Amino acid sequence: MSENFxxxxxAVVKLCAKYPGEYWRELDRERTYPTAFVKExxxxxxxxxxxxxxxxxxxxxxxxxxxxxxxxxxxxxNGAACHxxxxxxxTVLRHxxxxxxxxxxxxxATGELRLQAFGVTEPTSGxxxxxxxxxxxxDGNEGYVINGQKVWTSRAEHSxxxxxxxxxxxxxxxxxxxxxxxxxxxxxxxxxxxxxxIRPIRxxxxxxxxxxxxxxxRIPADSLVGEEGKGFRYILDGMNAERILIAAECIGDAxxxxxxxxxxxxxxxxxxxxxxxNQGIQFPIARAHARTEAADLMVEKAARMFEAGxxxxxxANMAKYLGSEVSWKAADMxxxxxxxxxxxxxxxxxxxxxxxxxxRIAPISKNLVLTFIAEHVLGLPRSY
Length: 384
Ligand SMILES: Cc1cc2nc3c(=O)[nH]c(=O)nc-3n(C[C@H](O)[C@H](O)[C@H](O)COP(=O)(O)OP(=O)(O)OC[C@H]3O[C@@H](n4cnc5c(N)ncnc54)[C@H](O)[C@@H]3O)c2cc1C
Fold this sequence. Notes:
By secondary structure, the chain is an alpha+beta fold. It is built from 13 helices and 10 strands. A hairpin with a 3-residue loop joins β2 and β3. The longest helix has 37 residues. Flavin-adenine dinucleotide binds next to β1, β3 and α13.
């Protein structure tokens, strides 16, 4: 989507230039959060572009958000630290009460409140979301009591609020298998130490991801978003936006790998000539470029359909699949182009290589995208 939002893109690139490789390397070594980077993006309004103007955002479409995330990744930065602040609020916007929208959205727009933790995945159920075991039981009229465990809840330590998916009706008592799950906004500032515990998980990337334990956590009745029992549908509604935005990040990553490899191939002299003179070096870079341009067209198509309010499940999934595949292939190409220097920290190639690998697994793994396409687009039998 390189032609669109030129002004926004230029401004984001300028902002990102203040956070060069050394900034990210240092954080990566210590596994610490990019506080200054996130603050600057927030203060400049980039994380609130999807929030309507009446709630203090800029009311732009998903293509603008995609452009911002693509430029962040293309600049060598890592939007995963805060991308969810852009889109998790969509569930509140679409399904929340007026009171919830007025209470939360303006503060999310200014950054006074962070809603960037999303508690869906659990250790026992994994991808099989409908089998999740965290329960929210009615506590008279007072509210709900939450018990259970989440895993891979990213940014929880850097978020004030969490969007939580929990079971309100036992699985064997629901009419439709997709019923019985509900969505809540949990105020983690109040919950921490009162039934909610966050434990960081050290991972191969600096992703601030955690596991969360709920032990009789009491939350007020007005934490419920939308109707009780309909939460799975609300979460699905938000997934197309997430997939399109992650796909745009992958395109940004791929472009960073292609540019970095091209620069290196032009500079590095071996056998008295630049290594880029060898077709064995050129072709993989050119191939990565061609693949990235093609995947970008799918991201653009999915974004356009999303903005037009058209069903775009297939396109959003294909964009995410193709994006994550091209960024991973470009990452491997960039490693190979750099020879031994690929593994040296100071080139940032190994860091970006680790970071982009995640997107073949999360927020949805590639197999599950392929099962969606097989079943819902091609009409093949459901495989699971
Ligand atoms: C760093 C990181 C951050 C994350 N952040 C969040 C977050 O903020 N919030 C959140 O809720 N979750 C988050 N996740 C979770 C992520 O969405 C899941 O890891 C992902 O959906 C896969 O689930 P799983 O790890 O349980 O794998 P599993 O479901 O155990 O699957 C393991 C493997 O089996 C394959 N598989 C499973 N079932 C099938 C099938 N039917 N057909 C074919 N293949 C199949 C999968 O594709 C995968 O390759 C994060 C994960 C990571 C690693």
